[in-house]
Write a structure and sequence with these properties.
Layout (H helix, E strand, L loop, with lengths): L11 E5 L4 H12 L3 E6 L2 H11 L3 E5 L5 H14 L3 E6 L14 H22 L3 E10 L12 H21 L5 E7 L5 H8 L14 H14 L3 E4 L1 H10 L6 H25 L5
Parallel strand pairs: 1-2, 1-4, 2-3, 4-5, 5-6, 6-7
Organism: Commensalibacter papalotli (ex Servin-Garciduenas et al. 2014)
GO cellular component, one term: membrane
Family: Belongs to the short-chain dehydrogenases/reductases (SDR) family.
């Protein structure tokens, strides 16, 4: 898919994972903020449908982040066509829940690649286009600060993404390029439903799953405020960060969290019977 020509008069935002439930809503919100948007995803039909819906202000680029050669092509193509990027949002992510001994080598590689390595390579490749007051935003997860049993690779990749973002923020601050990470709990998307069908963490339901709207509004806030980290729900960071200063406490706290999660999952399942998720 070839990019359309964008005039330089408007700010440009790039969104990875743009055809997912969260990605599509990010496109809508940034379009309402009058950004010109480059969507990055691996589903060409959905890229074309979304692009046609929004018209010339939104275009798509086919890229499978699990392949480094496609990332290299993506970055080269964008650098050849644009003089500046104002916002880079990393929304792509994947999870394959299950005990470590059940994870294939490919499942391990895919989660590390999409959740961590791909985000690093795209950031590195597009950094020359990031100018003063631009923003790099990572959609992380509470699983990036609280370890998730039976989602070890997901937690590892998201913990790594947090470390990368923190270090990068210090590196880029003198250039006035700002790095923000958003740590939502579970988000009400098809990805959550697929995850739970495969044995996803019960901790997803320690609080009700978030709407994509809530996450999108936090992304817009991060673009304006340029703070380092945002937690959703807000109280989660206040509770989890002190806990992780003493990881040995996890063995005492985790049974309580799991009980809360099982109760929350039951309520969520009952809600699905009343209001099934949209396809």
């Amino acid at each position: 898919m070839r990019f359309k020509f964008f005039k330089r008069s408007k700010k440009v935002a790039i969104i990875t994972g743009a055809t997912g439930g969260l990605g599509k809503d990010l496109v809508k919100h940034l379009s309402n903020e009058h950004y010109r948007i480059i969507m990055v995803a691996r589903n060409i039909k959905q890229l074309e449908q979304i692009s046609l819906h929004y018209g010339k202000e939104v275009t798509g680029c086919l890229c499978d982040i699990s392949h480094n050669n496609e990332i290299a092509y993506l970055c080269n193509d964008i650098r050849s066509r644009f003089g500046q990027i104002d916002v880079l949002i990393h929304s792509a992510g994947t999870i394959c829940p299950g005990p470590l001994e059940m994870q294939t080598d490919q499942m391990i590689a895919d989660q590390i690649q999409v959740n961590l390595t791909g985000a690093i390579l795209i950031t590195k490749g597009l950094l020359p286009l990031m100018k003063r007051n631009s923003s790099i935003i990572f959609i992380n997860s509470l699983g990036g600060i609280l370890p998730l049993k039976h989602s070890t690779l997901y937690s590892a990749s998201k913990f790594g993404l947090r470390g990368f973002a923190l270090a990068l923020s210090m590196e880029l601050r003198p250039k006035r390029i700002y790095v923000s990470s958003i740590f939502p709990g579970a988000i009400e998307t098809q990805m959550l439903h697929r995850e739970m069908k495969c044995g996803g963490s019960i901790l997803n339901f320690c609080s009700p799953p978030l709407s994509t709207e809530a996450v999108c509004l936090t992304v817009l806030k991060a673009i304006r405020q340029k703070k380092l980290e945002y937690f959703l729900p807000k109280w989660s960071g206040l509770q989890i960060k002190p806990l992780m200063m003493q990881p040995s406490l996890l063995k005492f706290i985790m049974p309580l969290l799991e009980r809360i999660g099982r109760k929350g999952q039951k309520a969520w399942q009952e809600q699905q019977l009343i209001s099934p998720p949209k396809k």
